[in-house]
Write a structure and sequence with these properties.
It comes from Halodesulfurarchaeum formicicum. InterPro entries: PRTase-like (IPR029057), PRTase_dom (IPR000836). Keywords: Glycosyltransferase, Transferase. By secondary structure, the protein is α/β, with parallel strands linked by helices. It folds into two domains: about 10-55 and about 120-205, Rossmann fold (3-Layer(aba) Sandwich); about 60-115, 2-Layer Sandwich (Ybab, Chain: A). The protein has helices at about 10-20, 35-50, 85, 95-115, 140-150, 165-170, 200-205; strands spanning about 30, 50-55, 55-60, 65-75, 80, 125-130, 155-160, 175-180. Helix 1 (about 10-20) runs parallel beside helix 2 (about 35-50).
Length: about 210
């Protein structure tokens, strides 16, 4: 499948919104993963005429290698464990639980900061679209999907502009539906599929929620 680069996150979000509309998806709520998911989430929410909120998770890194995810935890404590990665490291249960508690606090604080006093949305019985700016290993997305799965949401749709085929296939077994615009076999990182992929600051990301 031929791939092309998105101009920026807004362009990717507009294309995602169009793809969701073409599939006839009607969402009760769009949840974006901060920070990079919020520019896309705003475009998708506008396209679907749905309210926008956030889903927050924090990666659990391996001992001595914090960038290598052995799991992730959502702001409500819902955890996703990468069992094969855990077995390949020196992480024991005590380490994992300690890091889970630490990263849960990070995710919770981030969610509270972004919501700025607003209540968490009610998800039970809702059709929810989860949006991010792309997926590589998908650790934080998996934790967010696990959180949504426990929320009694009626239907969970993951919408991302780009991701490697193996990861997207795995995510299709977790979400009710996955909309991914590009699944390139040559995948080194999400940023390679954007012409502009600047870091999004917390202030910039939060502005999309107003």
């Amino acid at each position: 499948m031929a791939t092309s680069r998105f101009r920026d996150r807004a362009d990717a979000g507009e294309q995602l919104g169009e793809a969701l509309r073409e599939r006839g998806i009607e969402a009760d709520l769009v949840l974006a993963i901060p920070r990079g998911g919020l520019p896309l989430g705003r475009a998708v929410a506008d396209a679907l005429d749905a309210p926008l909120d956030i889903a927050v998770a924090s990666k659990i890194g391996a001992p001595g290698n914090p960038e290598y995810a052995i799991g992730a935890v959502a702001s409500d404590g819902t955890v996703w464990r990468n069992e094969s990665a855990i077995r390949g490291t020196s992480a024991d249960e005590a380490y994992f639980e300690r890091e889970r508690q630490t990263e849960m606090a990070v995710a919770r604080e981030k969610a509270e900061t972004y919501r700025a006093g607003r209540a968490e949305p009610e998800l039970a019985g809702k059709v929810v679209v989860l949006v991010d700016d792309g997926v590589a290993t998908g650790s934080t997305i998996r934790a967010c999907l696990a959180m949504l799965d426990e929320s009694d949401a009626d239907r969970i749709i993951l919408a991302v502009p780009v991701g490697p085929p193996d990861t997207i296939r795995e995510l299709r077994s977790v979400a009710d539906e996955v909309v991914c615009l590009q699944e390139p076999t040559s995948f080194m990182g999400v940023g390679q599929f954007y012409e502009r992929f600047d870091q999004v600051t917390d202030e910039e990301a939060m502005a999309y929620l107003s």
